Amino acid sequence: MDVVTSPHHITLGDRPLVVCDIDEVVLEFLSPFTVFLRSHNYDLLPRSFRLHGNIVSLLDGSEMDKEQVYAFEDVFFANQHLWQKPAERAVETLHALSVDADVVFLTAMPPRHHGVRRKLLDQFGLAFDMIASEEPKGPIVAKLHNRRDLPVAFVDDIQRNLLSVADHVPECLLVTMMANTDFKPFAPPPIGAILAATDWDHTGNILRQHFATAKSKDVSPVA
Q1: According to DSSP H, which parts of 79-131 are helical?
Q2: Residues in the chain where the model's pLDDT stays below 50
Q3: I need a labelling partner for 135 at 20 to 30 A (CA). Which of 4, 32, 169, 219 fits?
Q4: CA–CA gap between residue 91 and residue 103 (Å, rounded)
């Protein structure tokens, strides 16, 4: 199975493009990661919008340090097929959107876990192209879209990723959304042109409206 880390390996059609983050957007992450941690005598507490500093031992209450957090994340991703599942309404909404738009997944997960994630997504019927990269997302979306005269949208739960895309693809519709409700109140408020969506149904409506508006602008008035 090829590991796709570059947009150059993906061919788009002559239609709108939807680029989606995966963890906490397409797939649940924080909820299953919490269950995973508890199986190892740790817990993830919703105290702020981050992992480091919020993972504590169930044995003595001590906080897990950054290196331990990275190590546990790596083990989790290697075994994600045992823990993760699609966010509510993600599968149905993405399939509905794919009737009129290309859908591409862009995950910040380490590329070495590409194969496990690819199989997991396919298992849930999410057989859309996927790029796994730890590089900034703005340049990747810019290369993927390649300045086409077609609508483009980006959905992510992390503000720095949305702002990165805003810097490199200023015409891109930016939508912030996350599946987990416990940590959502700690997310930074959307800034600039970023739109906040409550769930996948809301996201789907925002994207369809964006595409419809762009299409109406392309229709020349009859003289």
Answers
A1: 90-97, 114-123
A2: 1-2, 222-223
A3: 32
A4: 12
